[in-house]
Structure formats: structure tokens, C-alpha cells
């Protein structure tokens, strides 16, 4: 059941990653258009602001994909010295810590969004972008990451309790070791 859930989450996050990637490509096209227009003496304006928003959104939404593809950086100095059970313990511990940090980020991000919503805040830039347009999807990305991290942690914990230690490797193990195992 746990592995089936992880496969489903991976597929879902691949779709999210494709949408985020398409958004980054659109942003790059916008910036490139602005650069070309500057060469002929005009400009669209606001490319720096929009690119910054795109990066913030790509980061918050892309973290879940990176998590499920074992792309986050880990220091596994101790983990590599243990057998399957010890590695599974380190993996679950690292996921518990990550989930705690991400949940904290999501909780702390809400007051920022709430303040912008309450005050009708706008960016202090020539575009005067309503901040809620950017902060709400940014916040949703952190909540999504917190949810994905928590579900992944619970699946790994379930496998650990069921003594299926080797199976946790596929979705919470170390990527470098995954490559050497194949």
C-alpha cells in the first residue's frame, strides 16, 4: 500500500513539475523578449519582478517533486556505515526532521499571506502587483510540500514498523546509493 501511494504521489508531482517547468519557460521567453526589445530601444518592463515571482513559485512547488525523486541534498556520513535497518532508521529520522521544518515554514508563511490579504498589499515596484496574486500560490506550494513530506514520512514509518526496511530505500534513501545499487 505504501509503495503504491508513493508511486501515485510521484506521478502527481511529475504533473506539477511539468506545469512549473512550463511556467519557467514562459518566464524565460518573456525575459528574452524584453532583452531583444531593449536592443531596439524599448522594453516591456517588470521582467526582474516577474522572474523573481516565478522563481519563488517554482521553488515552493518544485520541492515536492525533488523530494520524491530523491533530489534533496543529504549528508550520509553515518548512514552509509549501517545495514538496512540502521539506514531505514536514519531515513525515517531525516524525513521526520524535514517534515517538521517544512510544516513550520508553511505555518510561518501564512501570516505573510494573511497580512497581504488584509491590507490589500501591493509590490513597491512600477508594476504595483497585488502581492496576494503571488503569495497565495507561493503559500500553497509550501503547504503542498508539507503534505507530500508528511505522507512520505508516514509511508516510510509504516514500512519501518512492518520491518520492511529495504523498501524504504526506494523513496527516502540516498540518491547516490541508489545509483550504485542499479
TrEMBL record:
<keyword id="KW-0472">Membrane</keyword>
<comment type="similarity">
    <text>Belongs to the TRAP transporter small permease family.</text>
</comment>
<dbReference type="InterPro" id="IPR007387">
    <property type="entry name" value="TRAP_DctQ"/>
</dbReference>
<feature type="domain" description="Tripartite ATP-independent periplasmic transporters DctQ component">
    <location>
        <begin position="29"/>
        <end position="151"/>
    </location>
</feature>
<feature type="transmembrane region" description="Helical">
    <location>
        <begin position="88"/>
        <end position="110"/>
    </location>
</feature>
<protein>
    <recommendedName>
        <fullName>TRAP transporter small permease protein</fullName>
    </recommendedName>
</protein>
<dbReference type="InterPro" id="IPR055348">
    <property type="entry name" value="DctQ"/>
</dbReference>
<keyword id="KW-0812">Transmembrane</keyword>
<keyword id="KW-1133">Transmembrane helix</keyword>
<dbReference type="GO" id="GO:0022857">
    <property type="term" value="F:transmembrane transporter activity"/>
</dbReference>
<feature type="transmembrane region" description="Helical">
    <location>
        <begin position="12"/>
        <end position="38"/>
    </location>
</feature>
<dbReference type="GO" id="GO:0015740">
    <property type="term" value="P:C4-dicarboxylate transport"/>
</dbReference>
<keyword id="KW-0813">Transport</keyword>
<comment type="subunit">
    <text>The complex comprises the extracytoplasmic solute receptor protein and the two transmembrane proteins.</text>
</comment>
<dbReference type="GO" id="GO:0005886">
    <property type="term" value="C:plasma membrane"/>
</dbReference>
<feature type="transmembrane region" description="Helical">
    <location>
        <begin position="139"/>
        <end position="161"/>
    </location>
</feature>
<comment type="function">
    <text>Part of the tripartite ATP-independent periplasmic (TRAP) transport system.</text>
</comment>
<keyword id="KW-1003">Cell membrane</keyword>
<keyword id="KW-0997">Cell inner membrane</keyword>
<dbReference type="Pfam" id="PF04290">
    <property type="entry name" value="DctQ"/>
</dbReference>
<feature type="transmembrane region" description="Helical">
    <location>
        <begin position="50"/>
        <end position="68"/>
    </location>
</feature>
